[in-house]
Amino acid sequence: MCMASDKARPRSAVFSVHASKPDDIGAIEVVFDNQRAAEEFAANRSTDPGVLSASVTRYFVGELGTRRPISWFVDGVEQPRRFDRQPYPTDGGSCPSTEVPTRRPRNEPRQPEA
């Protein structure tokens, strides 16, 4: 959706970089007007101590709903845009065991394994 006053202006893309850290989801750190500069910064930022990953997102100025992920980096290496993993236990696959593990009392000696 464009704002009425923006229709005469040419469409302008910007690229933001966001870093993820274990104790902070973070926010946009910097905005670039070209993708290559944003990706170079994100790749470098992803190697900083305490940074888990850095991502690049594209927006079009003055247009709602145009946010799109472009790339993400871990330890300076661009990661696949789509990958196979199971982020949540309920995303299919085998269900985790519901059995309660049996524990031996602390003062009970271990039995040798056969």
UniProtKB/TrEMBL annotation:
This chain's protein is named: Uncharacterized protein
List the residue ranges of the region (Disordered): 79-114
Question: Which species is this UniProt entry from?
Answer: Pseudonocardia sediminis
Q: Where is the composition biased (Basic and acidic residues)?
A: 101-114
